[in-house]
Specification:
With 263 residues, this protein is an alpha/beta fold. It has a single domain, classed as Rossmann fold (3-Layer(aba) Sandwich). The chain contains 9 helices and 7 strands; from the N terminus they run αααβαβαββαβαααββ. Bound molecules: S-adenosylmethionine.
Length: 263
Amino acid sequence: MTGSPRRTPGVAAPARRQPAPGAGDLPEAEEKTRAVRAMFDTIAPRYDLVNRLMTFGMDVGWRRRTVRALGLPAGSAVVDVACGTGDLGRELRRRGLRPIGADLSAGMLAAGDPTIGRVQADAANLPLADAAVDGATCGFGMRNFSDLPAVMAEIARVVRPGGRVALLDVATPAGILHAGHRLWFEHAVPVIGGLLSDAAAYRYLPRSVAYLPEPPVLLAMVRAAGFSGVNRHVLGGGVVQLVTGTRAGPPEPGAGRGEPARR
Ligand SMILES: C[S@@+](CC[C@H](N)C(=O)[O-])C[C@H]1O[C@@H](n2cnc3c(N)ncnc32)[C@H](O)[C@@H]1O
């Protein structure tokens, strides 16, 4: 499902992101959306395997941390934006939460766990009513979106006031880890991905980091979308970042039931 993104009422639309420095010839806008969807359709069957190998299994712990950071009680409805094969959804369910996955790629959804509720949808146009859920997660999705501020505004629209957001993505470590991480991420990962899955996709992966705004810009974007108490935590020695926040505004009676939008 695609379409023009809807903005959160009362929240100014954040300025559209400029092309990321170093993005070079990376695609933008509709061309990016098409390329990203096709790429994930292609790598879906072996996505989980390559993920485990290239993170030495640490991605499991990062997802656990993401779900814990929501701090929501059991029974809360949580939309997992760009859910892929559903790793975060499984972790949400394991913690007693009620996940609803949304992803653009039919291939990723088909390769995932069929027992987790999910829908094929663009993150910038979620098929959920305003304030329908108690929280939102997004694992390694942010750098793949064509219009990140629009996705943030859409997440803010569907999360009830007082609800929580936890956004996980890659980061670039500083200091001593920087060189080792570059070697691994920019050279080893494309080789492993090429052997087990699709070489072009795993060459794109390290380059796609250029789409992510610098931390202060990313945090400002999340705040501008309507979240308060926005924080950034680095995990795995700085190779991953977790951004958390609370949907600003007074709680609405009856919110957070995870109801689909009537459109
Ligand atoms: C790196 S995978 C992450 C999957 C999963 N969240 C995880 O933690 O493993 C990125 C996912 O973002 C999805 N995606 C990219 N652009 C999207 C969009 N505009 N709307 C919804 N999903 C999108 C892709 O299809 C893919 O499944």
